[in-house]
C-alpha cells in the first residue's frame, strides 16, 4: 500500500509532551504542525491524508470535548489524542464513543505513546487507502481486525448486510497486505449465470463456445500474485463450488475448452450477506469450501450500529454530489441530521449515499432542510413496505422468506378467482386448467404437506398467471426479485 502519511496537529503547550510528540513524528516519518489556538487550527485546510489531533487537556484546552465537536463539524479524516489527568475507565470509554480515540494519562509513557500513535497512523492510512469514512467504535473494532489479518496470507470471509461496504473492506485488506502492489480483481457471483461465471473466473479458449472468437484470460490469471474478491459467494452453484475448491487446494485450473493446466497464486477474499452455516446445513454450500474460505471472518457492522458516523458520511456525500452535479449545496440543517441519524437504513451506506445524492440534486438552496429529508425518507419507507405478516424476528432470513411465500400462497386463492375470470375471457381451456388447479390446491390445504412442495407450486402458478414476467410474479408473491431468482434456480423453474 502506498503509505500516504497523515499529519500530527498539535495543540500541546507542555514542553515534555511536545518533545515526545516531536520524537514520535520523526520515528513514524509524519508531518508535524503546531497551532497556537483552536481558531488557527480550524482555519487550516484539511490534509488529503488526514491528521491526528493532539490536545493538551492539562492547560488552556481543558474543554477538549467542545473542541473535538468543532473539529468534527469542520473536518472528516482525523483521529483525536488527548493528554490529560487520570480518569476512571468508564469515563474514558464514554469519551471514546463521542470522539476521543486515544486518552493518555500524564506524565506520558514515551514508549507506550509511540506505539499507540503508530497504530493510529496505521488505522488512518487504512481508511485513506480504501476511502472508508467513520470513527465509531464498531467500525474501528472491525478495522483493527483487518489490520491484524491483512498482512497474512489466509483466506478471509467478509459477512455483512447489503450496502454495508464489503468490497471496500476487501480493498482495505488488499492494500494493507504484502500483495498491495499486485492486482486486485473482483466479481459478483450472484450477478452471473453459471456458464458466464465459469468463463469470468477461469477464462476460455477460442472456439470453446459460440461467440468465443478469441482466448480470454480469467480472473484467476489476471489476479495472479494479487487478490481475488468473490462477492455474494453464497450464490455460487455446487458445480462451481467444486471447481473453486480444486483451485484453492491445488492452485491449478483449466480454461473453458482448454487442455493446458495453469497455475495461479491468488489470495481469496469472499463476501456474503447470508449465513453460510445454514446453507451448509441444507446442502446448498459445500462444508469443505466453507471452511477453506472462512479461515478468518470479518463482520461489518450495519450503519444503524454506528450512527455516530452518519454526520461524517453525510458531509462527504453532500460534497461529492455537489461537485459531481454542479450544485452549491453546503450541508444539511441540524434537524435534518437528526432525522438521518434516527432512520434505520436497511440499505446501509449505499442507501444513505443514494438518498443524499437525490436530495442534493433536487435541492434549490445551499442547505438541505429537514422538511425535504422527512419527505424523502417517507418515500423510501413506502418503497420498502411489505405485507404485514406474522414473522418472528428470531428466525433466519431463509425461514422468513419461505414463510413469506407460504403466506402469499394462502392469499393467492383469492387472487386466482379474479385471474380465472380474466383467463376465461381468453379461452375455456385456460379457465378449466385454473379451475382444476384451484380444486386440487384447496384439497391439499386440508392435509399437511412439505413446505417446499407448496412453495414450488406457488411460484410456478404465479409465473403462469403473470405470463412469465418475473417482476410481476415477485410483486404478487410479496418477495424480492432476487429471492424469486434463487427459488427459480432451486426448484429448477428457470
Name the features.
single chain; Rossmann fold; 4 domains; 494 residues; globular; 52% helix; alpha/beta
Structural class: alpha/beta
Q: What are the segments in which pLDDT stays under 50 over at least 5 consecutive residues?
A: 386-396, 426-431, 441-449
Q: Tell me the overall shape.
A: globular
Q: Give the oligomeric state of the chains in this entry, treating copies of one chain as homo and distinct chains as hetero.
A: single chain
Assign the CATH superfamily of the largest domain: P-loop containing nucleotide triphosphate hydrolases
CATH class membership of the largest domain: Alpha Beta
Strand order of the largest sheet: 2-1-3-4-5
CATH topology of the largest domain: Rossmann fold
Note the gap between the termini. Answer: 44 Å
Number of strands: 16
Gyration radius over CA: 28 Å
Number of helices: 21
Number of domains: 4
CATH architecture of the largest domain: 3-Layer(aba) Sandwich
**What's the story with the biggest beta sheet?**
5 strands, parallel
Report the helical percentage: 40-55%
Determine the strand fraction and express it as a percent band: 5-15%
How would you state the average pLDDT, rounded? Answer: 84
Amino acid at each position: 500500500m502506498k503509505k500516504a502519511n497523515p499529519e500530527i496537529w498539535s495543540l500541546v503547550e507542555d514542553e515534555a509532551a511536545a518533545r515526545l510528540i516531536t520524537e514520535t513524528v520523526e520515528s513514524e516519518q509524519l508531518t508535524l504542525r503546531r497551532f497556537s489556538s483552536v481558531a488557527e487550527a480550524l482555519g487550516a485546510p484539511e490534509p488529503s491524508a488526514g491528521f491526528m489531533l493532539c490536545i493538551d487537556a492539562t492547560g488552556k484546552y481543558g474543554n477538549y470535548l467542545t473542541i473535538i465537536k468543532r473539529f468534527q463539524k469542520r473536518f472528516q479524516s482525523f483521529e483525536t489524542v488527548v493528554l490529560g489527568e487520570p480518569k476512571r475507565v468508564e469515563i474514558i470509554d464514554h469519551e471514546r464513543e463521542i470522539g476521543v480515540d486515544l486518552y493518555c494519562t500524564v506524565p506520558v509513557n514515551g514508549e507506550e505513546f509511540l506505539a499507540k500513535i503508530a497504530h493510529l497512523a496505521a488505522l488512518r492510512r487504512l481508511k485513506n487507502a480504501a476511502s472508508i469514512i467513520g470513527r465509531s467504535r464498531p467500525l474501528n473494532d472491525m478495522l483493527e481486525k483487518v489490520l491484524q489479518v491483512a498482512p497474512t496470507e489466509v483466506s478471509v470471509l467478509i459477512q455483512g448486510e447489503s450496502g454495508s461496504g464489503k468490497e471496500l473492506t476487501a480493498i482495505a485488506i488488499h492494500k494493507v497486505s504484502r500483495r498491495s502492489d499486485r492486482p486486485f480483481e473482483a466479481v459478483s457471483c450472484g450477478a452471473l449465470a453459471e456458464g458466464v461465471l465459469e468463463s469470468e473466473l477461469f477464462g476460455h479458449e477460442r472456439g470453446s463456445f459460440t461467440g468465443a472468437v478469441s482466448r480470454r484470460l480469467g480472473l484467476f490469471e489476471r489476479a495472479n500474485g494479487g487478490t481475488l474478491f468473490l462477492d455474494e459467494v453464497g450464490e455460487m452453484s455446487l458445480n462451481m463450488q467444486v471447481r473453486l475448491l480444486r483451485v484453492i487446494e491445488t492452485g491449478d485450473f483449466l480454461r473453458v475448452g482448454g487442455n493446458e493446466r495453469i497455475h495461479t497464486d491468488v489470495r481469496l477474499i469472499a463476501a456474503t450477506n447470508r449465513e453460510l452455516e445454514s446453507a451448509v446445513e441444507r446442502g446448498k454450500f459445500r462444508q469443505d469450501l466453507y471452511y477453506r474460505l472462512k479461515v478468518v471472518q470479518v463482520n461489518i457492522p450495519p450503519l444503524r450500529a454506528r450512527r455516530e458516523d452518519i454526520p461524517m458520511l453525510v458531509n462527504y456525500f453532500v460534497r461529492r454530489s455537489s461537485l459531481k452535479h454542479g450544485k452549491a449545496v453546503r450541508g444539511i440543517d441540524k434537524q435534518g441530521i437528526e432525522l438521518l441519524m434516527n432512520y434505520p437504513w436497511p440499505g446501509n451506506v449505499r442507501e444513505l449515499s443514494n438518498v443524499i445524492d437525490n436530495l442534493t440534486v433536487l435541492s434549490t438552496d445551499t442547505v438541505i432542510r429537514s422538511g425535504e429529508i422527512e419527505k424523502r425518507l417517507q418515500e423510501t419507507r413506502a418503497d420498502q413496505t411489505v405485507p404485514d405478516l406474522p414473522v418472528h424476528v428470531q428466525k433466519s432470513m431463509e425461514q422468513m422468506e419461505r414463510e413469506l411465500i407460504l403466506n402469499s400462497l394462502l392469499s393467492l386463492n383469492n387472487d386466482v378467482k379474479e385471474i380465472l375470470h380474466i383467463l376465461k375471457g381468453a379461452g375455456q381451456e385456460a379457465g378449466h386448467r385454473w379451475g382444476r388447479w384451484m380444486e386440487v390446491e384447496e384439497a391439499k390445504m386440508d392435509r399437511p404437506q412439505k413446505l417446499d412442495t407448496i412453495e414450488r407450486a406457488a411460484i410456478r402458478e404465479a409465473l403462469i398467471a403473470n405470463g412469465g414476467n418475473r417482476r410481476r410474479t415477485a410483486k404478487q408473491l410479496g418477495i424480492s426479485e432476487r429471492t424469486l431468482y434463487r427459488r427459480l434456480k432451486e426448484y429448477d423453474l428457470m
